[in-house]
Specification:
Helix content: 40-55%
Distance between the termini: 32 Å
Order of helices and strands: HHHHHHEHEEEHEHEEEHHEEHHHEHEHHH
Number of strands: 12
Radius of gyration: 27 Å
Strand order of the largest sheet: 2-1-5-6
Number of domains: 3
Strand content: 5-15%
Amino acid sequence: MTALDDGLYSSVRGSTSANEVSISARIPAWQRGYARRLIVVDCLAVMSAVVLAHWLRFGAMPGTDLAYRSMHYTVVSAVIAATWLAALSINRSHSPRIIGVGPEEYRRVLLATLSVFGAIAILSMLFKLEIARGYLVIALPAGMAFLAAGRWAARKLVSRARMKYGRYITRVVVVGSEPAVHDLTKSLAREPWSEYEVVGACIPQGAGRGKIAVPGVGVIPTFGNESNVVGAVTATNSHAVAVTATERLDGRGIRDLSWELEKLDVDLLVAPGVVDVAGPRLQMRPVSGLPLIHVEKPNYNGAKRFEKRLFDIVFASAVLLCGLPLLVGVAIAIKLTSRGPVFYRSERIGINGQPFEMIKFRTMVDGADTLVDKLAAQNESEGGVLFKMKRDPRVTPVGRILRKYSIDELPQFINVLTRDMSVVGPRPPLAKEVTTYDDYVKRRLLVKPGITGLWQVSGRSDLSWEDSVRLDLFYVENWSMVGDLLIALRTLKAVFGHSGAY
């Protein structure tokens, strides 16, 4: 997926033959238009930041009569804004290769911003320019916030247009074996807001096939085998070709194909077939003319473990202290409205298969666990491993409210402080669930279970068992502190939107 994220873009260049002109004309212009609109967004963000810094620092807007005492800062603001925008351009933060998807866009924006203000600090020290530090202290975070907010808003508008109107789509022809085409198509279809749409395939057995069915997605037309890629691109009006696992297309064949597609101004993408591995673990290493992809091993120890534990302690302590009045109020409500204990204690399986007692506010009638067998026929979970019911009769009226906003999970922060759980991690499984795990699924137990995680921000109870496992394993294979912070922020949206909570 990472290779595709970096590659499914194309640019329009001139061509000579009639065929090349017709294909080049079909390449979408939305990438270039999107990049131009981002330039306008960045200009507004940068100008807003320097104007805000000038106003807050000197008490007047630049260029007004009231700003005569700081008139030279009007020039300073203009120079900083121009330099800032130039740095964004030099760092290629508007490149169609990176805008609209992944963290690289934000990384380049941050790098350009820090470069500008670092250069200003160095020049101020060398030439004793005496630029007000308060001005820079305001301009830097304000500009970064405005730039990030503008890029985020632009992404949301494009995503909404894709899901609602089917616009801003990159059409892709996949070349490879039938199972590989299935896997790639299903992976891209999991995110309907992404820009990629598989519109055709070239498979080894494609000469006698007209289409292949991809479960859960639909029917993909085939256009012969690997020798008919150009014909497939023409027939489907595609903008890119993705080569995945194939037996007949060797290294020289891929090179020749890239030359053919280059003439047509169509991108060639090579999907390595490594699934659910994030970018930081993939390193490109050219060796003897071969671009080798090195997959780093997951790291669960050392400084990363210390950072995660420190984050858990600080976050859990803050939530429990700030939420103490709410915790007391919930406890009283539960006690007054239903018989039984305030807390529900359930044995769960933690890191390395060690059992622990998870604490939650009780949201069901006392003894609800004994009623599971009677309700087993009404299980709505796909896969059958978990038990889920949207209208579970065991849930109390107060419990339904607590579940809707995930308030029942607040006592689990006690489990975080006792080292049984983490703030972010895989879903804590029941012991009977673990008995059904194979070696593949058991990798979920390599890290502590979490109060929230990718499963929480991606649908919660609406997820199928297969998707829940896939998200948990992706987290285990790629966990990082930045990822934990992003998941924690996304959890707030999931909780207040109460999607998938029942």
